[in-house]
Amino acid sequence: MADLNYKDLGLKRLIMKDTFKWGDKNIEVLKYLPVEAKYDIVMITLQKAQEEGYYNPIKLDMYFHLNLIYMYTNLIFTEEDRQDEGKLFDELKSSGFLATFLQYIDKEEYEEMQEDIDNIAELSLRYRSSAGAVFNKFIDDLPANAEAAQKIVDNFEPEKYQAVIDFAKAANGGREIK
After folding, report:
1. What are the angstrom distances between the C-alpha of 135 and each of 33, 35, 103, 129, 139?
2. Could you give the CA distance from residue 5 to residue 15 in angstroms, rounded to a whole number?
3. CB atoms within 10 A of CB 61
4. Which of 16, 68, 78, 127 has an alpha carbon 20 to 30 Å from 104's alpha carbon atom?
5. Cβ neighbours for 131, distance < 8 A, ≥ 6 positions apart
6. Looking at the structure, do residues 25 and 71 belong to the same domain, yes or no?
């Protein structure tokens, strides 16, 4: 069998798209997105949907679908448009635009990204509750905590401490504090 250089195949990423009409506007929907863009959709969705150590399922759904529309269509959203993404999502969904858009996106790509989000979210939550994650957080926080403790030691004034003890003793009817 003869070896063949990959470059000799002449492969290029095909840019395929579908178009649907929304009112009098033509909306283009890419059929394939580069892997880096799909990675961005998944990771940004997870980042924005995270709340106090868990992933909010409502926000996962909202950000996933918004990011799909941002990346797969020819629509341009201004900073002002994206300022209230909850309102933007509600408008896209309640108007029927989201449902129409989803008819044109490649189902396999859609399902793969949704599965990736679910898998990464589960792995992330599992890792955060592991002993290794707790230990790593402790190690990461150690310098800041040590610095704060050093400041307390540096600013410690024994006479103020004694004044607090004397006050507590007096408030306790002159008896020793246990």
Report:
1. 38, 33, 46, 10, 6
2. 24
3. 16
4. 78
5. none
6. yes
pLDDT of residue 172: 65
Q: Are residues 20 and 51 in the same domain?
A: yes
Q: What is the largest CA-CA distance in the chain?
A: 98
The number of domains in the chain is 2
The closest of 45, 10, 13 to 32, measured between CA atoms, is 13
Cα 178 from Cα 166, distance rounded (Å) = 13
Is 4 among the domain residues?
no
Confidence class for position 130, pLDDT limits 50, 70, 90: low
Asked if 33 and 72 touch (Cβ cutoff 8 Å), the reply is yes
Q: Are residues 122 and 137 in the same domain?
A: no
Q: Six-digit token pair at 62?
A: 């909202």
The model's pLDDT over 77-114, given as tens digits with 9 standing for 90+, comes to 999 999 999 999 999 999 999 999 999 999 999 999 99
**Against a cut of 0.85, is the pTM above it?**
no
Q: By C-alpha distance, which of 39, 41, 17, 37 is closest to 29?
A: 17
Position 156: which residue type? F
